[in-house]
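Exercise 7.
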Amino acid sequence: MNRHLKVAFFVAPFLLIGGYIVADHFQAAREQDYRAATYAVHELRADSTCELVREKCLLRSDNLVLDVFVAGDRYRVVSSRKLDNVAMALAQDDRETRVVAMMPHEGQRQWSTVVRKLTNLEKEKPLLLRVVATGGNDQYYAEVPIDSTGPWN
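Solution. The predicted structure, written as tokens, is:
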């Protein structure tokens, strides 16, 4: 074996590892740019305090209005435009319930899911309602405080 083959066998593993790292770096940057260009993210803001049991909670952004409320044994969301997905969760400072995907009704403008009893939340701590919705190339999110008394206790 001549000197050139010895050097090639010694350098090849380093070139392989270096090439893998560089390729991963460029691929990750490309994926991040793609995700940023794919969705426009909008924050939904509450018009007033949210008391889901007593009245509707209005969440607004520039091009979407969500009415969130509890009717009977179901959480309901009514949208001002057609949405692809809606999910929600209740949270406290140190814990969160499982995120629940809502089921569409009437042309994907109305969404609902069953109210579950929450065993892992503390009754005396305030609750946060987290809502995420996607429609077309837009993603909407909200995190608003709600009244801690309700059918989930």
